[in-house]
Amino acid sequence: MSTASRSSAVLAAASVVLATLxxxxxxxxxxxxxxxxxxxxxxxxPAGTYVIERLPSQQNPSPQQQEVEQGAxxxxxxxxxxxxxxxxxxxxVVQIGARVTRYDHPPWDDPWWWHPYGGRWIGPGWGxxxxxxxxxxxxxxxxxxxxxxxxxMLIRDRASGQALxxxxxxxxxxxxxxxxxxxxxxTAALKDFPQSNNQAHDVAVQLx
Length: 208
Description:
It is a single chain. With 208 residues, the protein is α+β, with helices and mostly antiparallel strands. Helix content is 25%, strand content 30%. The protein contains three helices and nine strands. The strands form two sheets. A seven-stranded mixed β-sheet has the order 3-2-4-7-8-1-9. A two-stranded antiparallel ribbon has the order 5-6. Helix 2 (63-78) packs parallel to helix 3. It starts with a helix and ends with a strand.
């Protein structure tokens, strides 16, 4: 093979590797949520203007509440809604919610991790944090926690109070997440709007 041909082959291989790495980076910067939505949005009705409803206890919002509201506002505007001008009556009133539930794993939860009666053989793992085969003795504690992240949104007609559209999204992971992740989950929840799909399905949204 000539020097020029060899150089072309190396450049082609490098391009393939770079494309693979970029695809991997893009996948790492997205969140996949399990989404379900309900309701029959009136045919031909535009999204219109909105206001987020606050309970009396939420009139002086905490920083965490403000972050959740900002995430919901981004999703609403992506779906075609616009904030109602101050002092003007909105077309719809929106109720939102978000919560993160932490699940800890006591050692007796998983027989693979709790061995009070001597050692055991640990086989090779998989993925970026794989381990080498080895013999382990005594106690072994699983210390990481799982987190279930959930968001929900209910859109009501302001004039009649009728519930028009409800959407929910859920994701799981090893961290509580971030404001950007919660915002992406709200966006996923409204991805089907104005259509609804009450069958749980996965929706991926890119993180900023």
